[in-house]
Each structure stands twice: as C-alpha cells, then as structure tokens.
Amino acid sequence: MGRFPLETLLQRLLSPWGLALAAALLLLVLCLRARRTRRPGEPPLIQGWLPHFGVALEVGKDPIGVMKTLQKQHGDTFTLLLGGKYITFILDPSQYQLVMKNHKLSFQQFSNDILKKAFSIQKFITDEGLSNELHDCYQYLQGRSLDVLLENMMQNLQQVFEAQLFKTTNWTMTHLLTFCSSVIFETTFTTIFGKVVAGDRTKFITELRNDFFKFDAKLIHLLSDIPMDLLGNAKSIQKKLIKRLTSENLAKIQGWSEVVQLRQAILEKHYTSTDFEIGAHHLGFLWASVANTIPSMAWTIYYILRHPEAMAVLRDEIDHLQESTGQKRGSGFSIHITREQLDSLVYLESAILETLRLCSFSSIMRFIQEDLTLPSETRDYLLRKGDLLAIFPPILHYDPEIFEAPEEYRFDRFVENGKKKTTFFKRGKKLKYYLLPFGLGTSKCPGRFLAVNEIKQLLVVLLTYFDLEIIDDKPVQLDYGHFLFGVQYPASDVLFRYKVKS
Ligand code: HEM
C-alpha cells in the first residue's frame, strides 16, 4: 500500500479550502442548532430555509406579495426570521393602538441600535437625557419655525434654479432621480445647515452630496450584522462624512436653522465641542432630512409625468392660486407662497400622499423589553423579550378593501368634494389609521410637514416655469433595497426633459 489515505485527508483538511469548508460546516451546524422552536402561545413562526437570513430574500423581492400570502396562511400576527432578527408583524390596524400604548415596547432601544450601527452614535445608550433634549428640538420643525424654514427653502430653491435651470431655453434632457437628488440635497442642506462662507460653494456641496450618496448606498450593509471586515469601505465613507460635519467644519457654514443651532448647543453640553461624535449626530439628522424626500420627489414627478390628467389638474390648481393672490408669472423667479397657501393645494397634496402610499415601505418597530402578552379579538399571543415587534403599513396601503385598485396611481385619491379626504373604511369601520408613511406614536417623523411642503414648493416652481416631458415612458419598479426603512428608490432612473416656458 502507498501513503496512508488518512494522512492525505488530513493534509487536505488543513489546506485553506479545507479549513474554509470546515468553518462553513461548523457555522451551518451552529445556525441550525440556533434555530428556535415555537413556544406554546407564541405567534406562528416562519424561519425559511436560510440560516440567519431566514425569509429575508423572499420578502425583499416581493414584500407585499409575500406578506399577503403569509397573512392568508397564518392570520394577522406572525413572527419572521429576517436577517438574524425575530420580528413579530402586526397586520391588523385595530391592534396598532395596543402596540403604541404598551410600556414594555421600546422605540428608544431599537433606535439606539440603529443609530450606533448607521451613524456611529454611541452616547444615547448611556445618556438618556441627551436623547430627550434632542427630541424636544423637533418642535422647531413646526409652527413659526416651520414658516421660517419654508421661506428660506423657497429662497434656496430660487438660487438653485437661477444658477442652473433658468438658463435652459431649449429642451434639456436629464435623469429624473439624479435631478431630484441634486436639487433636494442642495436645497435641504442649505436650508437646515446653511451655506459655506469661504471657498467654492458648488465644489463643497457637490463633494458632500457625492460622499452622502456613497454612504447611503452602504447604509443597509452597516445596519446588518455583517462583520466590519467584510463591509468594504462602508465604515471609511461613514467616517469621512462625519468629519465633514464636526463642530469645527460646521463653524465654516453660515445660516444654521434654529433646529441646528439648538441641537449643536445641546450636543456641546453633553460632549466636548471637538468630539467627533457631534458630527455623527449631524449626519443622522442630515440623512433623515433628505433620504426619504429625494425618492418621494422623484416618484411624484414620475407619476405626474405619466398621468397627463394629473398634470392638467395640478397646473390648474397652482395657476388658480397664483391668480387669486395676484401673482403673475414674470420672466424671473417671483413666487411667494405662504404655508397656508401651500396647505390649500389639496390636489397637489393628494398627488404626494398617493406617491407615499405606493412607495413608502417603512415599518414601525419596537424592541420587546420584557416577555409580554399581546391581546387581540381572536386570541392572545405571547411575545419574547429581545425580539422586535413591527407594524407594517404597506399592507394597509395596498389593501383593496381600503383603496380601490391599490396598485394604481390615482392622483386625486385623497380629495373629496374639493377637500382633503380622510375617511377610509375596512370591514365597514372607519379607520383611524389608513396612511402611515411617517410612522406612529413617539417615533413619528418630526420633519413630515417640512417634507410635504418642500415637495409642494418644488412642484409649484417646476409646474409654474417649465414644460416637462417624460422620455422613457416605461413602467419603473420599486427597488426594495431600503425595505422596512422608508421610501423605496426606483429600480432604474428614467430620462425626462424640461424647458423654460416661453
Ligand atoms: C417624504 C419624506 C419623509 C418621510 C417619508 C419620512 C419618514 C420618517 C419615518 C418613517 C421615520 C421613523 C419613524 C419610526 O421609526 O417609527 C422618520 C423619522 C425621522 N424623520 Fe422623517 N421622513 C421624511 C422627511 C423628513 C425630513 C424632511 C426631516 C427633517 C428635517 C425628517 C426628520 C426625521 C427625524 C429627525 C426622525 C427621527 C425621529 C426620532 O428619532 O424620534 N424626516 N421619518
């Protein structure tokens, strides 16, 4: 006999491939052993076949289809394994209130984990006071402060338009999402954080924007439990961006909004003023202020361009407002529009809400701090400490009993008798919640009024001064890359063209 086969086997096992295979097998065994079994009284448990990731792939491809199928099979409450997390979904709107009131469910604990991973904000975990104080600042996104923000926003829009867009007397062709990203990023950043005083302003905003989009593309990886070494340059992009927003660099920017001034004062109380983490807080706020507004804007223009009947009604509504307030469209930028006047544009608002109904896939998440019993009309469910609980609004938004032909974009869905429509029904009962793109309860988006009004302002400017046409008149799918976190981006960009009205 030649060499003993066991020796050869050992050599093979100790080669890099052999070790990798052994590690993979060990991981598989650990994952399989770690699969949980459903305890009596718990909701139906769906773990899929993939260890750790569970049903993430299926749900990420077709969230509504998969959730509706699971709802048919298991009812309105079930637990899914998604990317290493056990998440119990609540699909019955009559249970939302119970979730919101339960003191064993914490938004803070859920959000601390997200903020740490996405933006490297650590301090909330040890300093609850900081979180409360920053939360109080959100009132400066409403009332009189909102009026000031909107006045500044319109001026900043004017600058963006006068610098670039009014120069185009011939048709100019561009990609829709790229166009919205550029306009919304610059207008929002300058309105909230101000403008650089020295040096090249365009270069500053272009570099910041480019870094921001690189970071946003990696965000979902940062949120996963993938080991840091496998995340490529995600961490270095995050650091670069945080550095751009530290106290020292922010000091080079003039015209901070009230909300930023107050946030900075609070942050300087809780950190030393040179602390890197101050930049991380500003990055988080910047992300919240543009990440959902950009796709919302892009989708709204896309739908309006593909629905000429919507375009005609919206142009009419805007013209009518301008006539009734004595504003004539001159050659330059001359729009002055108050918040009250923006509020009166009910068709425009409906067109935006309809976009949010179709494209927002945010979940309202809570961390389960202690084992608890969740009552329902049919039966009670036991929920486990350490899991997550989620309300999943898209299931409402795509419910044909609430919204007829839910897959269709109907720009006037939220208008009734010339007023905002707020009555929607399910099983004959008037619904308290029918549209939840901005979350619910303590975690409800504090920037929602700014967001909707910003989109309205931009649409008023575009429809007042420009002719717009879609070039790629094709159906565009949603890219579920930000599934569970906000408004989804289009899966592909489309070409459109614009020209200043003669
Ligand atoms: C169409 C645009 C927007 C959408 C769809 C949107 C949606 C949301 C959602 C779903 C949440 C989280 C709710 C939760 O986790 O339960 C949120 C949180 C937040 N949003 Fe927005 N948002 C938008 C625009 C804005 C703007 C323009 C700002 C600010 C200037 C803003 C500031 C924030 C902040 C600071 C939070 C965190 C609140 C907290 O931690 O309690 N958002 N937003």
From TrEMBL:
Residues holding heme? 445
Instruction: State the UniProt keywords alphabetically.
Output: Cholesterol metabolism, Endoplasmic reticulum, Heme, Iron, Lipid metabolism, Membrane, Metal-binding, Microsome, Monooxygenase, Oxidoreductase, Steroid metabolism, Sterol metabolism, Transmembrane, Transmembrane helix
Q: Which cofactor does it need?
A: heme
Molecular function as annotated in GO: 25-hydroxycholesterol 7-alpha-hydroxylase activity; heme binding; iron ion binding; oxysterol 7-alpha-hydroxylase activity
Name its pathway. Answer: Lipid metabolism; bile acid biosynthesis
Q: Which domain of life is it from?
A: Eukaryota
Q: Where does substrate bind?
A: 117, 292
What InterPro entries does UniProt report for this protein, alphabetically? CYP450_sterol_14alpha_dmase (IPR050529), Cyt_P450 (IPR001128), Cyt_P450_CYP7A1-type (IPR024204), Cyt_P450_E_grp-IV (IPR002403), Cyt_P450_sf (IPR036396)
Which spans are transmembrane here? 14-32
Q: Which GO terms describe its biological process?
A: bile acid biosynthetic process; cholesterol homeostasis; cholesterol metabolic process
Q: Which Pfam family is an annotated match for this chain, by its short name?
A: p450
Keyword Magnesium appears in the UniProt entry: no
GO CC aspect terms: endoplasmic reticulum membrane
EC nos: 1.14.14.29
Class of enzymatic activity (EC top level): oxidoreductase
User: Where, per UniProt, does this protein localize?
Assistant: Endoplasmic reticulum membrane; Microsome membrane
Q: Where is this protein chiefly located?
A: endoplasmic reticulum
Please give the family membership noted in the entry: Belongs to the cytochrome P450 family.
The protein, known as: 25/26-hydroxycholesterol 7alpha-hydroxylase
Q: Which organism is it from?
A: Phyllostomus discolor (pale spear-nosed bat)
